[in-house]
Every structure is written in C-alpha cells, then in structure tokens.
Amino acid sequence: MLGKLSGWDDTIVALATPNGVGAIGVIRLSGPKTIAIVNQLFPSKDLSKQSSHTIHVGFLKDGDKVLDEVVVSLFKNPKSYTGEDVIEISCHGSPFIQEQVINTIVKHGARLAKPGEFTQRAFLKGKLDLTQAEAVADLIASNTEASQKTALHNIRGGFSTVLKELREQLITFSALIELELDFSQEDVEFADRTKFYELIHRSQKVTTDLLQSFQLGNVIKNGVSVAIVGKPNAGKSTLLNTLLNENRAIVSEIAGTTRDTIEEVININGILFRLIDTAGIRKSIDAIEVIGVEKSMEKMQQADLVLYLFDVNTESKAELETALLQVKQQNKSYLLIGNKVDVLGEEEAQQKFYGDGVFFIAAKSNKHIDVLKERLVDKVVQGTIQTESTIVTNARHYTALQEVEKSLNDIKAGLDNQLPGDLLALDIRRCLHFLGEITGEITNEDRLDYIFSKFCIGK
C-alpha cells in the first residue's frame, strides 16, 4: 500500500508561516524539481553545486524583474524533513511579495501543496511514522507546557517505540505458529505457549495503561470545561474574576445580575480550564433570567467538571443536600465550594457543613484560591502529570487500541481453551492489523488524506 502512495513525482510549494504582514515570510518547496526551479529564479549561485544544509543570500528574479532579496535554505535529499530536496525561501513579510514569489514558482513547474502534504511526504518517505506525524500537528496546536511536552515525546518516537516492541514480539510468535501449521502432521509446537502467555499478559498491561492514559491525554490536549453553578449571589462571578485576576464578569449585590453564560480560559499547572460563569439557578418570572437559568443547566450537562458554589451564610445544610442531589443526577465530576467564609468564619462553616465534603473559600478576599486551583488540577488528572511517559492524546489511536485490547483478550481466551494454531493465528493477525493502523504500517490513501487534511498548509 505504501509503495503505491509513495509514487509522487511532482514538486509542491506553500507558505510555511502564517498569512498576514510580518517581518519575514517563509516559502517552502519539496520535490524532485525543487533545486531546478529555484535555480531559475536565484542567479546568485548554482544551488545544485552547493552542499546540503547551507544558507545563501541573493536576489530572487523572474527574468529581469526583481521579486525580493531573500535567504535560501537548502536541504538535499534524503537529509531533509520530507526526505526529498527541500528549499525554504525567507522573503520579506509582505503578502504581496509572498504571493508574487509563490505564483512565479508555480509558473516554473511546482504546484500548490495541500494541507499537511509536506508531513505526509515525510511519512511516505519513512522519515516519520503516522503517530509521529500526527504529533507534529499536536505540537503546532499546543498551547500549554504539558501539551507541548507530550507532543514532543511522541515526535521523538515515545509512543511508536512502545507499539513497535509489542508488534515485533507478536510477529515473532505469529511466525512460529504459522510454522507449526506447516508441520501439522508431526504434531509439534515451535511457539512456547508459556512464553506466549507471558507476552500476552505484558501486552494487555501495556494496552490497558495506554487506554487509561487517554483520559489524561484528552485533558492535556483539549482542556477541561468547568461550569460554575449555584444560586444567585453565591459569588460565582466574583470567583471567576478572582481566578482570572481581572474583572471579567459584572459583580452586584442584586440577585440575577448574570443573565447569560460567560466563558474564559485559564492555564493552571499546564492544564487549560474553560471556566463558565452561569446564571444563578432559581425560579424566576423574569423571561430573560429564565432563559439564563436554562442555559446554566445546559452548560452543567455539557461540562467535564461542575463547581457548585454556595454562600455558607445563607445556605442551609438541607438546601445543600438538595442541590447536591441535583448535581449528582447529571453524573458529573464535581466540587462543592462554600464561599464567603470571611463573613461567617471558617470554623463555624466547617461545623455547619461537617461531612459534606465541602471546600471553603472567600473569593472576594482571595482566601484559599491557590488551594482551589490545586484541587481543580487534582480532580481532573488525579495525580502528577508525567509528560515524559507515553500518554495517548489522539482519539484515532484510542479507538484502535480498544480493538487491540479485544484481540489480546481473544488470544488469551484461545490459549486458555487450547485452540489450534490456525485459529490463534487469526486473532494475532487481527491484533497486528490494529497496531499497524496506529503507526501507519497498515493504511489506505483515503485515511491518510483525511488525517493530513487537518494539518495547516505549509506543514
């Protein structure tokens, strides 16, 4: 399959830096005609005679017309990102100049690259496997230290190494079982069933750990949606402002001030929390406030985590238990936050709500807010983030790993029931298939096009 896909013989070009005005823009070419095309436009030097990984300064011309003074970075195959001849032209950051340069390059024999096509060529040339290629997109999209480290770990082959070791061991046993089939009349076993049991057990442990890491991986990659809910005047908007360290929401003593949801993002210890300040939940005859309450309930249903905030001075223990029952009905992870303990007093609040698992703060005076942030992180990651370990962040990988887990369970059941080698071999092949789908050793053109279409153009 990869042989068919890798038969590309054209040269592509794209702007590798973001569109818009800037100091410089970088235009990238890759393909067999790269050097020949740029040589026609760059009279300063014959690039075909220059060493790879060198930089050259000169004027870029279309005939007698000077397009720009540029810096040309030369990377000759196979020691380039794509494995092909690659040139990056650093020109001035005028969109007009960039467009002129790209149009001229296209006129001389290149075509515009599709989204992710440079990385797709790197994959097809064997410079990256599919998990590493997808990690490139994750790195570009990373907006926290945790997501950056996780993507870098996968680009360096952390995830790939785990899968390849597992796949190679399964292939070895598969080959031995296939060999047994050739000698079925002699009733011999080449594959040591005891060692095979040990391999399946280890494989199940690795697969289970990877599947369990997806919850954390999803948090690192996509962040956590947090709905701040409670009655009017519980201090929800004050808490939002305090967490953000800015006056984002209107704060008033008048009940029902917040009529619509307000959403903001905060980075806490490398995790993005999308905080949603909702309208106070209460019965109302105000039509606009009623809509706000309905939106609050909707946001609570959609959130990954619910912060139920209440005023320790006005809320009774019975009212809290009723509200808690409503939150539990949503089947969501939650934190109970008792606010305004600077008025009632923290000891009195603890005695009043003893045994309810309440964490107490005073949002207005910033009391215990740092501890609340720690509680938020602990609630979603359940421990320290180990970004140097392998963490699954990709839904495609997670789905394939679920199939790997099913296949391993079938193999173990087959061993337990002493199934013949030909039936065991079928389950092993199925397991190998899904492992190969993750790394790209087994794939098809439509799937690749879909995966790389989500990349930015120029990458």
From TrEMBL:
<dbReference type="GO" id="GO:0002098">
    <property type="term" value="P:tRNA wobble uridine modification"/>
</dbReference>
<keyword id="KW-0963">Cytoplasm</keyword>
<feature type="binding site">
    <location>
        <begin position="252"/>
        <end position="258"/>
    </location>
    <ligand>
        <name>GTP</name>
    </ligand>
</feature>
<dbReference type="Pfam" id="PF10396">
    <property type="entry name" value="TrmE_N"/>
</dbReference>
<feature type="binding site">
    <location>
        <position position="237"/>
    </location>
    <ligand>
        <name>Mg(2+)</name>
    </ligand>
</feature>
<dbReference type="InterPro" id="IPR027417">
    <property type="entry name" value="P-loop_NTPase"/>
</dbReference>
<feature type="binding site">
    <location>
        <position position="252"/>
    </location>
    <ligand>
        <name>K(+)</name>
    </ligand>
</feature>
<feature type="binding site">
    <location>
        <position position="28"/>
    </location>
    <ligand>
        <name>(6S)-5-formyl-5,6,7,8-tetrahydrofolate</name>
    </ligand>
</feature>
<keyword id="KW-0819">tRNA processing</keyword>
<feature type="binding site">
    <location>
        <position position="258"/>
    </location>
    <ligand>
        <name>Mg(2+)</name>
    </ligand>
</feature>
<dbReference type="InterPro" id="IPR006073">
    <property type="entry name" value="GTP-bd"/>
</dbReference>
<dbReference type="GO" id="GO:0030488">
    <property type="term" value="P:tRNA methylation"/>
</dbReference>
<dbReference type="InterPro" id="IPR027266">
    <property type="entry name" value="TrmE/GcvT-like"/>
</dbReference>
<feature type="binding site">
    <location>
        <begin position="233"/>
        <end position="238"/>
    </location>
    <ligand>
        <name>GTP</name>
    </ligand>
</feature>
<feature type="binding site">
    <location>
        <position position="254"/>
    </location>
    <ligand>
        <name>K(+)</name>
    </ligand>
</feature>
<dbReference type="GO" id="GO:0005525">
    <property type="term" value="F:GTP binding"/>
</dbReference>
<keyword id="KW-0342">GTP-binding</keyword>
<keyword id="KW-0547">Nucleotide-binding</keyword>
<comment type="function">
    <text>Exhibits a very high intrinsic GTPase hydrolysis rate. Involved in the addition of a carboxymethylaminomethyl (cmnm) group at the wobble position (U34) of certain tRNAs, forming tRNA-cmnm(5)s(2)U34.</text>
</comment>
<feature type="binding site">
    <location>
        <position position="127"/>
    </location>
    <ligand>
        <name>(6S)-5-formyl-5,6,7,8-tetrahydrofolate</name>
    </ligand>
</feature>
<dbReference type="InterPro" id="IPR018948">
    <property type="entry name" value="GTP-bd_TrmE_N"/>
</dbReference>
<dbReference type="GO" id="GO:0005829">
    <property type="term" value="C:cytosol"/>
</dbReference>
<dbReference type="InterPro" id="IPR027368">
    <property type="entry name" value="MnmE_dom2"/>
</dbReference>
<keyword id="KW-0479">Metal-binding</keyword>
<keyword id="KW-0460">Magnesium</keyword>
<feature type="binding site">
    <location>
        <position position="88"/>
    </location>
    <ligand>
        <name>(6S)-5-formyl-5,6,7,8-tetrahydrofolate</name>
    </ligand>
</feature>
<feature type="binding site">
    <location>
        <position position="257"/>
    </location>
    <ligand>
        <name>K(+)</name>
    </ligand>
</feature>
<feature type="domain" description="TrmE-type G">
    <location>
        <begin position="223"/>
        <end position="381"/>
    </location>
</feature>
<feature type="binding site">
    <location>
        <position position="233"/>
    </location>
    <ligand>
        <name>K(+)</name>
    </ligand>
</feature>
<dbReference type="Pfam" id="PF01926">
    <property type="entry name" value="MMR_HSR1"/>
</dbReference>
<dbReference type="Pfam" id="PF12631">
    <property type="entry name" value="MnmE_helical"/>
</dbReference>
<dbReference type="GO" id="GO:0046872">
    <property type="term" value="F:metal ion binding"/>
</dbReference>
<dbReference type="GO" id="GO:0003924">
    <property type="term" value="F:GTPase activity"/>
</dbReference>
<protein>
    <recommendedName>
        <fullName>tRNA modification GTPase MnmE</fullName>
        <ecNumber>3.6.-.-</ecNumber>
    </recommendedName>
</protein>
<dbReference type="GO" id="GO:0042802">
    <property type="term" value="F:identical protein binding"/>
</dbReference>
<comment type="subunit">
    <text>Homodimer. Heterotetramer of two MnmE and two MnmG subunits.</text>
</comment>
<feature type="binding site">
    <location>
        <begin position="277"/>
        <end position="280"/>
    </location>
    <ligand>
        <name>GTP</name>
    </ligand>
</feature>
<dbReference type="InterPro" id="IPR031168">
    <property type="entry name" value="G_TrmE"/>
</dbReference>
<keyword id="KW-0630">Potassium</keyword>
<feature type="binding site">
    <location>
        <position position="459"/>
    </location>
    <ligand>
        <name>(6S)-5-formyl-5,6,7,8-tetrahydrofolate</name>
    </ligand>
</feature>
<dbReference type="InterPro" id="IPR004520">
    <property type="entry name" value="GTPase_MnmE"/>
</dbReference>
<keyword id="KW-0378">Hydrolase</keyword>
